[in-house]
Design brief:
The chain is an alpha/beta fold and 289 residues long. It has helices spanning 31-42, 54-67, 83-94, 119-149, 173-193, 214-218, 220-228, 238-249, 276-283, and strands at residues 21-26, 46-51, 73-77, 98-104, 155-160, 198-205, 260-263.
Length: 289
Amino acid sequence: MSSADPSTPAASTATHRLDGQVALVTGGGSGIGLACARALAADGATVVLAGRSAERLSSGRHEVLAAVPDAEVVTSTCDVTDEDAVAATCATATEHGTFTMVVANAGFGSAAPLHLTTLDEWNSVLATNLTGAFLTIKHSVGPLAAAVRSGAPSTSIVAISSIAGAVTHRYMTPYDVSKAGLEMLIRQTADELGHVGIRANAVRPGLVPTDASQTLMNTPEIHDDYLEQMPLGRVGDADDIARLVRFLLGPESNWITGTCISADGGHHLRRGPNLDPVMRAVLGDQASP
Protein backbone atom coordinates (compact mmCIF):
# COMPACT_ATOMS: atom_id res chain seq x y z
CA MET A 1 0.00 0.00 0.00
CA SER A 2 1.42 3.39 -0.94
CA SER A 3 2.07 5.79 1.94
CA ALA A 4 0.37 8.50 -0.13
CA ASP A 5 -2.79 6.49 -0.72
CA PRO A 6 -5.61 8.92 0.17
CA SER A 7 -7.79 6.02 1.29
CA THR A 8 -5.39 5.29 4.15
CA PRO A 9 -6.35 7.00 7.42
CA ALA A 10 -4.08 10.03 7.89
CA ALA A 11 -2.07 8.82 4.88
CA SER A 12 1.22 10.69 4.66
CA THR A 13 2.45 12.55 1.59
CA ALA A 14 5.93 12.64 3.13
CA THR A 15 8.92 11.77 0.96
CA HIS A 16 10.67 9.86 3.75
CA ARG A 17 9.65 6.35 4.72
CA LEU A 18 10.07 5.14 8.29
CA ASP A 19 10.95 1.51 7.59
CA GLY A 20 13.09 -0.10 10.28
CA GLN A 21 12.20 2.56 12.83
CA VAL A 22 10.10 2.05 15.95
CA ALA A 23 7.57 4.48 17.39
CA LEU A 24 6.16 4.26 20.91
CA VAL A 25 2.64 5.67 21.30
CA THR A 26 1.25 5.95 24.83
CA GLY A 27 -2.51 6.03 25.11
CA GLY A 28 -2.31 4.26 21.77
CA GLY A 29 -5.42 2.11 21.93
CA SER A 30 -7.92 4.71 20.78
CA GLY A 31 -8.52 8.29 19.70
CA ILE A 32 -5.61 10.51 18.77
CA GLY A 33 -3.03 7.94 19.83
CA LEU A 34 -4.53 5.29 17.56
CA ALA A 35 -4.72 7.73 14.65
CA CYS A 36 -1.03 8.54 15.15
CA ALA A 37 -0.22 4.83 15.14
CA ARG A 38 -2.05 4.37 11.82
CA ALA A 39 -0.21 7.28 10.24
CA LEU A 40 3.17 5.98 11.38
CA ALA A 41 2.42 2.42 10.29
CA ALA A 42 1.31 3.69 6.88
CA ASP A 43 4.83 5.03 6.37
CA GLY A 44 6.50 1.80 7.42
CA ALA A 45 7.25 2.32 11.11
CA THR A 46 6.89 -0.46 13.64
CA VAL A 47 4.45 0.82 16.24
CA VAL A 48 4.37 -0.05 19.93
CA LEU A 49 0.92 0.73 21.34
CA ALA A 50 1.01 1.32 25.09
CA GLY A 51 -1.94 1.74 27.42
CA ARG A 52 -3.61 0.43 30.56
CA SER A 53 -6.27 -1.73 28.88
CA ALA A 54 -5.02 -4.87 27.14
CA GLU A 55 -8.44 -5.26 25.51
CA ARG A 56 -8.36 -1.74 24.07
CA LEU A 57 -4.78 -2.22 22.86
CA SER A 58 -5.75 -5.45 21.10
CA SER A 59 -8.67 -3.70 19.41
CA GLY A 60 -6.41 -0.82 18.40
CA ARG A 61 -3.85 -3.20 16.95
CA HIS A 62 -6.53 -4.81 14.79
CA GLU A 63 -7.66 -1.37 13.60
CA VAL A 64 -4.13 -0.47 12.51
CA LEU A 65 -3.74 -3.79 10.70
CA ALA A 66 -7.08 -3.30 8.97
CA ALA A 67 -5.81 0.01 7.59
CA VAL A 68 -2.22 -1.14 6.96
CA PRO A 69 -2.26 -4.94 6.54
CA ASP A 70 1.52 -5.33 6.37
CA ALA A 71 2.17 -3.22 9.47
CA GLU A 72 4.13 -4.46 12.47
CA VAL A 73 2.19 -3.51 15.59
CA VAL A 74 3.24 -4.48 19.11
CA THR A 75 1.19 -3.90 22.27
CA SER A 76 2.49 -3.22 25.76
CA THR A 77 0.17 -2.93 28.76
CA CYS A 78 1.46 0.06 30.66
CA ASP A 79 0.22 2.60 33.20
CA VAL A 80 2.32 5.69 32.53
CA THR A 81 2.22 6.62 36.23
CA ASP A 82 4.15 3.41 37.03
CA GLU A 83 7.84 4.05 36.39
CA ASP A 84 8.80 0.38 36.21
CA ALA A 85 6.07 -0.27 33.65
CA VAL A 86 7.17 2.69 31.55
CA ALA A 87 10.80 1.56 31.65
CA ALA A 88 9.77 -1.94 30.58
CA THR A 89 7.68 -0.60 27.70
CA CYS A 90 10.56 1.54 26.44
CA ALA A 91 12.80 -1.52 26.63
CA THR A 92 10.23 -3.44 24.58
CA ALA A 93 10.39 -0.76 21.89
CA THR A 94 14.14 -1.31 21.48
CA GLU A 95 13.58 -5.00 20.74
CA HIS A 96 11.73 -4.40 17.48
CA GLY A 97 14.05 -2.14 15.50
CA THR A 98 15.67 1.25 15.87
CA PHE A 99 13.67 3.15 18.48
CA THR A 100 13.50 6.72 17.16
CA MET A 101 10.03 8.15 17.84
CA VAL A 102 7.82 8.78 20.86
CA VAL A 103 4.25 10.04 21.06
CA ALA A 104 3.46 10.98 24.67
CA ASN A 105 -0.30 10.94 24.33
CA ALA A 106 -1.71 9.30 27.49
CA GLY A 107 -3.97 11.68 29.35
CA PHE A 108 -7.42 12.47 30.70
CA GLY A 109 -9.33 15.31 32.31
CA SER A 110 -12.09 16.06 34.78
CA ALA A 111 -14.34 19.03 35.46
CA ALA A 112 -15.20 20.65 38.77
CA PRO A 113 -15.04 24.11 40.30
CA LEU A 114 -11.62 24.87 41.74
CA HIS A 115 -12.91 25.01 45.32
CA LEU A 116 -14.59 21.60 44.95
CA THR A 117 -11.67 19.85 43.26
CA THR A 118 -10.29 17.20 45.60
CA LEU A 119 -6.59 16.62 46.12
CA ASP A 120 -7.02 13.10 44.75
CA GLU A 121 -8.55 14.49 41.54
CA TRP A 122 -5.74 17.02 41.20
CA ASN A 123 -3.02 14.44 41.79
CA SER A 124 -4.60 11.88 39.47
CA VAL A 125 -4.79 14.23 36.48
CA LEU A 126 -1.27 15.58 36.95
CA ALA A 127 0.12 12.08 37.53
CA THR A 128 -1.13 10.85 34.18
CA ASN A 129 -0.84 13.94 32.01
CA LEU A 130 2.40 15.42 33.31
CA THR A 131 4.29 12.85 35.37
CA GLY A 132 3.37 10.14 32.87
CA ALA A 133 4.86 12.19 30.04
CA PHE A 134 7.95 12.89 32.14
CA LEU A 135 8.48 9.17 32.79
CA THR A 136 7.91 8.33 29.13
CA ILE A 137 10.50 10.89 28.06
CA LYS A 138 12.93 9.95 30.85
CA HIS A 139 13.04 6.30 29.84
CA SER A 140 13.05 6.84 26.08
CA VAL A 141 15.84 9.41 25.72
CA GLY A 142 18.59 6.84 26.35
CA PRO A 143 17.50 4.61 23.45
CA LEU A 144 16.84 7.64 21.24
CA ALA A 145 20.33 9.01 21.89
CA ALA A 146 21.77 5.57 21.13
CA ALA A 147 19.86 5.54 17.85
CA VAL A 148 21.46 8.87 16.88
CA ARG A 149 24.93 7.52 17.68
CA SER A 150 24.15 4.53 15.48
CA GLY A 151 23.31 6.78 12.54
CA ALA A 152 19.54 7.27 12.75
CA PRO A 153 18.58 10.25 10.57
CA SER A 154 16.17 11.67 13.13
CA THR A 155 14.88 11.04 16.64
CA SER A 156 11.87 12.90 17.89
CA ILE A 157 9.43 13.18 20.79
CA VAL A 158 5.96 14.65 20.32
CA ALA A 159 3.70 15.28 23.30
CA ILE A 160 -0.03 15.75 22.89
CA SER A 161 -0.99 18.90 24.77
CA SER A 162 -4.35 20.67 24.36
CA ILE A 163 -5.98 23.97 23.56
CA ALA A 164 -6.47 23.97 27.34
CA GLY A 165 -2.72 24.42 27.75
CA ALA A 166 -2.97 27.84 26.12
CA VAL A 167 -6.52 29.08 26.77
CA THR A 168 -8.23 28.83 30.16
CA HIS A 169 -11.10 26.38 30.48
CA ARG A 170 -13.02 27.29 33.60
CA TYR A 171 -13.74 24.32 35.89
CA MET A 172 -10.91 22.28 34.34
CA THR A 173 -8.02 23.56 36.43
CA PRO A 174 -6.04 20.32 36.91
CA TYR A 175 -6.26 19.51 33.20
CA ASP A 176 -5.27 23.03 32.11
CA VAL A 177 -2.33 23.12 34.50
CA SER A 178 -1.15 19.65 33.46
CA LYS A 179 -1.09 20.62 29.80
CA ALA A 180 0.66 23.93 30.43
CA GLY A 181 3.25 22.03 32.44
CA LEU A 182 3.59 19.48 29.66
CA GLU A 183 4.52 22.22 27.22
CA MET A 184 7.29 23.46 29.54
CA LEU A 185 8.49 19.87 29.91
CA ILE A 186 8.82 19.69 26.13
CA ARG A 187 10.75 22.96 25.96
CA GLN A 188 13.08 21.76 28.70
CA THR A 189 13.61 18.46 26.88
CA ALA A 190 14.34 20.20 23.59
CA ASP A 191 16.82 22.59 25.21
CA GLU A 192 18.62 19.98 27.29
CA LEU A 193 18.81 17.15 24.75
CA GLY A 194 19.14 18.92 21.42
CA HIS A 195 22.91 18.52 21.56
CA VAL A 196 22.55 14.73 21.38
CA GLY A 197 20.21 14.93 18.40
CA ILE A 198 16.86 14.50 20.13
CA ARG A 199 14.07 16.84 19.09
CA ALA A 200 10.98 17.50 21.21
CA ASN A 201 7.78 19.29 20.24
CA ALA A 202 4.14 19.38 21.28
CA VAL A 203 0.83 19.54 19.46
CA ARG A 204 -2.18 21.39 20.87
CA PRO A 205 -5.38 19.75 19.58
CA GLY A 206 -8.64 21.60 19.76
CA LEU A 207 -11.97 19.81 20.08
CA VAL A 208 -11.69 16.42 18.39
CA PRO A 209 -14.30 13.63 18.69
CA THR A 210 -12.76 10.93 20.90
CA ASP A 211 -13.91 8.81 23.82
CA ALA A 212 -12.46 11.44 26.15
CA SER A 213 -14.41 14.32 24.58
CA GLN A 214 -17.83 12.63 24.35
CA THR A 215 -19.37 14.75 27.11
CA LEU A 216 -18.24 17.97 25.42
CA MET A 217 -19.36 16.77 21.99
CA ASN A 218 -22.75 15.58 23.23
CA THR A 219 -23.68 18.66 25.28
CA PRO A 220 -25.19 21.12 22.77
CA GLU A 221 -24.46 24.27 24.80
CA ILE A 222 -20.78 23.37 25.13
CA HIS A 223 -20.38 22.02 21.60
CA ASP A 224 -21.95 25.12 20.06
CA ASP A 225 -19.84 27.44 22.20
CA TYR A 226 -16.69 25.65 21.08
CA LEU A 227 -17.70 26.19 17.46
CA GLU A 228 -18.27 29.90 18.07
CA GLN A 229 -14.69 30.21 19.27
CA MET A 230 -13.19 28.55 16.18
CA PRO A 231 -12.55 30.81 13.17
CA LEU A 232 -12.89 27.74 10.92
CA GLY A 233 -16.23 26.94 12.57
CA ARG A 234 -15.87 23.16 12.80
CA VAL A 235 -14.35 20.50 15.00
CA GLY A 236 -11.38 18.51 13.79
CA ASP A 237 -10.77 14.80 13.76
CA ALA A 238 -8.04 12.56 15.08
CA ASP A 239 -6.41 12.23 11.66
CA ASP A 240 -5.92 16.01 11.52
CA ILE A 241 -3.74 15.67 14.59
CA ALA A 242 -2.02 12.50 13.40
CA ARG A 243 -0.79 14.11 10.18
CA LEU A 244 0.88 16.89 12.15
CA VAL A 245 2.39 14.44 14.63
CA ARG A 246 3.75 12.34 11.75
CA PHE A 247 5.44 15.43 10.29
CA LEU A 248 7.02 16.38 13.61
CA LEU A 249 8.28 12.85 14.21
CA GLY A 250 9.95 12.42 10.85
CA PRO A 251 13.08 13.85 9.24
CA GLU A 252 10.94 16.31 7.27
CA SER A 253 10.91 18.48 10.42
CA ASN A 254 14.55 17.97 11.43
CA TRP A 255 15.16 21.65 12.22
CA ILE A 256 12.06 22.06 14.38
CA THR A 257 12.34 21.59 18.13
CA GLY A 258 11.02 23.10 21.34
CA THR A 259 7.79 24.39 19.86
CA CYS A 260 4.08 23.75 20.34
CA ILE A 261 1.83 23.85 17.30
CA SER A 262 -1.91 24.41 17.61
CA ALA A 263 -4.24 22.28 15.50
CA ASP A 264 -7.57 23.67 16.63
CA GLY A 265 -9.35 25.48 13.81
CA GLY A 266 -7.98 28.74 15.21
CA HIS A 267 -9.52 28.30 18.67
CA HIS A 268 -6.35 29.59 20.37
CA LEU A 269 -7.13 33.03 18.92
CA ARG A 270 -10.26 33.34 21.07
CA ARG A 271 -11.49 32.30 24.52
CA GLY A 272 -12.07 28.95 26.12
CA PRO A 273 -15.51 27.35 26.19
CA ASN A 274 -18.23 28.62 28.50
CA LEU A 275 -19.02 25.76 30.85
CA ASP A 276 -21.00 27.92 33.28
CA PRO A 277 -24.53 26.87 32.21
CA VAL A 278 -23.81 23.17 32.56
CA MET A 279 -21.86 23.51 35.79
CA ARG A 280 -24.57 25.66 37.38
CA ALA A 281 -27.28 23.27 36.20
CA VAL A 282 -25.48 20.45 38.00
CA LEU A 283 -24.22 22.24 41.11
CA GLY A 284 -26.49 25.26 41.51
CA ASP A 285 -25.10 27.79 43.97
CA GLN A 286 -22.24 25.44 44.85
CA ALA A 287 -20.62 26.24 41.50
CA SER A 288 -19.23 29.37 43.17
CA PRO A 289 -17.55 29.52 46.59
